[in-house]
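User: Can you fold this complex?
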Amino acid sequence: MKLKNYLLFGLAAATMTASFQACKPKGAGSAVSGDAAQRTYIPPGQHDEFYNFVSGGFSGQMSVYGLPSGRLFRVIPVFSVDPEKGWGFSEETKPMLQTSHGFVPWDDLHHIEASFTDGMPDGKWMFANSNNTPRLARINLQTFRTDEIIEIPNTGGNHCSPFTTENSEYVIAATRFSVPPDGEGDVPIDSYKENFKGHISFVSVDKQTGEFDISFQLKTPGLNFDLSSAGKGVSNGWLFMSCYNSEQAHTLLEVNSSKNDKDFILAINWKKAEEYIKAGKGKKQNNVRYAHNKWDEHTHTAKHEIKTEVTVLDVTEFEDLAYLIPCPKSPHGTDVSPTGEFIVGSGKLAALIPVFSFDKLQKAISAKDFESELYDGIPVVKYESALHGEVQKPGLGPLHTEFDDKGNAYTSFFVSSEVVKWNINTLEILDRQPTFYSVGHLMVAGGNAKKPFGKYLVAYNKITKDRFLPTGPELCHSAQLFDISGDKMELLLDFPTIGEPHYAQALPADLIKERSLQIYDINANKHPHKTNGESEARVERNGNIVRVYMTTIRSHLTPDVIEGIQLGDEVYFHVTNLEQDWDMPHGFAIKGANNSELLIMPGETTTLKWVPDRVGIFPFYCTDFCSALHQEMTGYARVSAQGSNVPVKYYTGEKTE
Amino acid sequence: MKLKNYLLFGLAAATMTASFQACKPKGAGSAVSGDAAQRTYIPPGQHDEFYNFVSGGFSGQMSVYGLPSGRLFRVIPVFSVDPEKGWGFSEETKPMLQTSHGFVPWDDLHHIEASFTDGMPDGKWMFANSNNTPRLARINLQTFRTDEIIEIPNTGGNHCSPFTTENSEYVIAATRFSVPPDGEGDVPIDSYKENFKGHISFVSVDKQTGEFDISFQLKTPGLNFDLSSAGKGVSNGWLFMSCYNSEQAHTLLEVNSSKNDKDFILAINWKKAEEYIKAGKGKKQNNVRYAHNKWDEHTHTAKHEIKTEVTVLDVTEFEDLAYLIPCPKSPHGTDVSPTGEFIVGSGKLAALIPVFSFDKLQKAISAKDFESELYDGIPVVKYESALHGEVQKPGLGPLHTEFDDKGNAYTSFFVSSEVVKWNINTLEILDRQPTFYSVGHLMVAGGNAKKPFGKYLVAYNKITKDRFLPTGPELCHSAQLFDISGDKMELLLDFPTIGEPHYAQALPADLIKERSLQIYDINANKHPHKTNGESEARVERNGNIVRVYMTTIRSHLTPDVIEGIQLGDEVYFHVTNLEQDWDMPHGFAIKGANNSELLIMPGETTTLKWVPDRVGIFPFYCTDFCSALHQEMTGYARVSAQGSNVPVKYYTGEKTE
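Assistant: Here's the predicted assembly.
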């Protein structure tokens, strides 16, 4: 009967997107506030109220919008090369995308979460997870660049990530696909239950520098961790993670992992785990290999390092680390309320939303009010014992829940394509608004913090179809901005997004503006190939390595004429931008180079590698329009045959060397 | 004195950006229309009025915005890989970015221009130029994808491009940096005047298929071609190109190419050149090597080919092909009015704008009203003989001119940071509006066509600084939308842009909407590794080549469990998306792959190559949220040691092979 139920609902859920489209409302005029234009318009010269940091999903990037205007200010490369920023093409940035199995130019970024201090975003960093090649990243909100990436061992699909604890003591990275631990991999896939394990990584964040360290991993039986929230306030010290494949299926999950009426939320007492680690209970695992890449702000260069050890604690060896809370059905989002007291489980195939009480959970654990043990001895708390209550008939396909500053929760419904507002205490439904179409994640400004900012909610929709002018078979995804300051949600604006927006954060503009850097101090630039002013511009040959120490300032490149390069040479253009004025980048490109461009911010040194493949004259130029005489900011390099007697020679305007 | 003049003005021009900032107006409230919010707001469910196709500059991409909302609907990869589209990562798309010197993942796209029929955009294609690695591209407006890229031989910096003739008979590609012809390159750079040549390529466009062919090249003395406009209407058959380095300087152009009070516009009689080519006057040059890459719409795969011949006509060998028109001073834009009668030269260091008359030019040529011959015998028409008149005191640093539907011209001024409206006939200045900051290109909807659409003008500004919320040292560029339907220009909106917007086009929405494709017909898919439905999904080994014929449809990948892969294998996942519903793409990623993802549009087959580097279990999954059971759309691949006896085995839900 369970299977039959599933098939009926599952089939409906899986195909509902299509059938929903057929009967979609025409336009959306009725829900739109009459003065929405005024409320989303930012007059030229004025600034938006919030920064909206939005994950890019399969693009591997993170984008930055203004709210309420919905304007895109920046796409930040995180796990992918980016030709708009030159990220991953210069010699300095390439190491950032190295992994234990080489250079990965494109990956799948899922969620982002802000760094927190006392449960509130502190404006220092954004954290992001790479799903396919399991990694965590830290983005610096002074520079809007990725400062650090760490690979996560023993993990398959780092989806349940990068959710942080109340003071960002740890960023969590947990396996969506259980896999055999690293080094124990050549086993039959149908031995899943015996050989496949889950790992939950606690990656510490240095309070000052932000630097990552995999403090420890918790090893679990084979489970699929989907999403998580750390406790806060009363529940600080705990972590809650949705597990959607309680069946431990390993094939045709569409059917086989959707059989049970209830799956689980796994509650982890991470403070207790910390104690065990301090007491030396963890085991060193030395057969792992993972990349740890850091941006060096002094040399303006990324360093790539491989690490080979991690400390692992097996939760099944301890009685008081992990508890399973039954949760109907295939839970996706697991979201903790601002006070930390309530844990909302969104079972994507469930017809209700269970809300668990942290207080009741603790009492149930103390009283050992368990219904069973599963998966090598993890206690299963009785559903009713942990339950605060259920939101009845909320909609179809609940996915995620966010919170406002007035005691309300907002849940996204993929199948019935709507956002539903309900009261956290009374569980009463207060409002519902359709979304166009099939909302996935949603975000309230500060909606995962102790004191949400409220005011705006954004629905990030999975299906776009006719919402914007068509662009062929491949369409942007779509976001919808709602004003939630009144009793009813008011739709204000549709705006397109980059990649696939999974989770997002909105931070008040002032929190970031105050920290934002305008230039890099050229005196602090310690790049090993920096050129200290035009008088030091030069060309140096060492064997077949030719280094061009070049400067750029309005409106010339120095040197601008270079001879004496030969076939077989490796040429490095180390270009230093001498400008110390905000928004005065220069670019550099030379014909014949494969990674053919650079972008250099004021005060930075950046390097282009060129291995000429033919004899000739190769023009180079500034690629970023900088001044009235930008078009004149050019030069030529001459490449001669190997063994040619053309000497190294360069012109710097006044002098020829 | 000339030099002194230059130094005064040039220094002012070069540094004015900085000083201008110091005295910039606070905000821009006064110029903004009171109901700008209403006039730029597109209510949810409704569509924008125009598509705005905008070049991405150094990003190598082209972006598509809606007007008047300024919303970004799509970034189209053209000369760069793009992690949002998977462009340049799949086996099918990689060949599109091959050049004669290998794979170029990032390049510098400068201008775009629409395909024209009888002087009006026909909605079929956009053309784009790559500046650094000289190339032309054709973007298909049914699919919003790049369908073709051709490399341009004998060329250095393909900046003066891709401007097309009245019926897009030809797209022009001309050298910004003269260089020695291919194969004659190892010469001293200071032999510029003798050895460096300009080449202007006439690339024909097949009226039906759009296919490119380098019909012929015109070889000229060493000149810098900056921008061009083809004649239209009365001047159809001619081409006008700005030349900013009449001094033929090769070093410190900031000073040395800015000495002359007048440089030139080169007028080319291309119909005459066509006749000479037909008469066999061109010379075959066989020492060139250039890539010609085409997307095959049947196999969904790019083909890369190298060509080795081009036909060249030396303009100095003919009396009636090319004429120089003196133009003050360092001309940048050269723009032809809607009737074709007027040619506007924007000398970026000039204090006036000369407007030339095509009729007077023809009369001067007939009368041989020349002031001299230059550069091996090219006649120089007398300035006054070709001049319609001068716009006096227009502003500082004129760059580009566009036209409206009422006989007006609009010129951008970089240094004085404004757009100036003037009457084409009377040359009277009618209005001026400040831009924030330092406008480069500008665009009127249809402003380069025979019958401009008018209504909107967009200024694409080079400096952003404080216009939007700050994002560290690296900022987006900025556009400003003006309503030009009244007597005075009205500023409506600031919106951020992707990369560096050089030229742009705006086309009425209906022209594109009608042609837009929603899905790829799966029955027409002739990919050699297509899978015709789930029953054909399979794994095949041939030596160390393993091919996975995979299908994807809501909500499963078939096969979803694969064993028998060994170290040393090359694994190809050929993934066919069986969906035939608009906006139902699927993604694919597998842990351990370097090009780790695919995006597959409905009806397409796309290939990911994977060379495993270690033994283990590697999860794979759909990367583009597609359905309520998307999270269940996963599988596992097992990699064993080389020589292992684990047989090739795969599961397709019901059956195991």
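The two ends of chain B are 86 Å apart (CA to CA). The longest helix of chain B spans residues 2-22.
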